[in-house]
Specification:
Largest sheet: 2 strands, antiparallel
Strand order of the largest sheet: 1-2
Structural class: mainly alpha
Shape: globular
Order of helices and strands: HHHHHHHHHHHEE
Helix content: over 70%
Number of domains: 1
Radius of gyration: 20 Å
């Protein structure tokens, strides 16, 4: 198909091919999900999204359906593009086996203050017309249905379907592939690429009331990858972010806690504002100290960002 790896081609060509692969994967993923839903649940994906009362059995199948969608729509195109782009696809994706403890601890610190900041952003966004929780019952119903289950089997399935698959698929697609292609294309203004990918990351989830909090989280993840060059850090952080919701929802299902993290995740607005400011300030400080790192090597050419 190509007489050389995609990294030898112009960034515009890489982006075009990436979009082509994504388009095919999207159609394939939608087809697979619809076939699975009709075969296992008995209704189409479109009809499934209109359900208001989802049983435990349907909830379990919904998790499988969602995982299949993420694998085909996000993970498959990311791995395919990396395979076409570089002789060592994992190197291209920023999958580094070596974890530098100082960098990881910094990333973890940023994530902790970001968790508090997310609550602040969410509380502020409720006052923006069109971004309140009104009209998002469908998304909330589906999300809550996927958190159902009080058995260990349910907990493990929730962890796999809500934490493991999304963190790997979304980070490899949005940060390791899309952000990298855009960074290579818009080198004079790399921050624009990070912001653009964060917007697309939030829009992908399709929930207007969660757009700004998810954009903020995507921005933090994007800058962590931009700073470290190691996608493992963002995968771990993304996993932890989702796992907190899964874990506390599981405790509530067991009636060990009364706290509903999905409904009552607000923190004191002043504490939230402090977390927001600290996360931005920490990122700014370390980005200022950042040195360009070699993203990958093609022949005698080193690609730095």
């Amino acid at each position: 198909m190509f007489n050389k790896y995609l990294t030898y081609y112009s960034p515009a060509t890489q982006f075009t091919i990436f979009c082509f692969i994504v388009s095919i994967s999207f159609v394939l993923g939608a087809l697979v999900m619809n076939l699975y839903n009709q075969y296992s649940i008995g209704i189409s994906s479109e009809d499934l999204s209109t359900l208001t009362n989802i049983s435990d059995s349907v909830s379990f199948k919904l998790k499988i359906s969602n995982s299949l969608g993420l694998i085909f729509v996000l993970l498959f195109p990311a791995l395919t593009f990396a395979y076409l782009a570089h002789p060592k696809p994992l190197d291209y994706l920023g999958v580094q086996k070596k974890i530098q403890l100082p960098l990881f601890l910094i990333s973890l610190l940023v994530f902790i203050v970001t968790l508090v900041g997310v609550s602040f952003v969410e509380q502020i966004s409720r006052h923006i017309p069109g971004f309140s929780a009104d009209g998002n019952d469908r998304y909330d119903t589906m999300a809550k249905a996927m958190l159902k289950g009080s058995s260990m089997k349910d907990f493990l399935m929730n962890t796999f379907a809500i934490c493991v698959i999304p963190s790997i698929a979304e980070e490899l697609f949005f940060r390791a592939c899309l952000q990298q292609v855009l960074l290579n294309w818009i080198r004079k203004n790399p921050y624009f690429s990070v912001v653009l990918v964060a917007i697309l990351f939030s829009a992908f989830h399709g929930q207007m009331s969660g757009f700004f909090p998810r954009f903020y989280l995507g921005l933090i993840l994007g800058f962590i990858y931009f700073f470290t060059g190691n996608i493992i850090y963002t995968i771990i952080i993304h996993f932890l972010n989702n796992f907190i919701t899964v874990f506390f929802s599981y405790l509530k299902e067991l009636k060990w806690v009364q706290f509903d993290i999905y409904e009552n995740a607000d923190v004191n607005i002043y504490l939230g504002a402090l977390g927001f400011i600290l996360s931005i300030a920490t990122l700014y400080f370390y980005i200022q100290k950042r040195e360009p790192f070699k993203l990958f090597q093609m022949g005698n050419n080193d690609i730095y960002i």
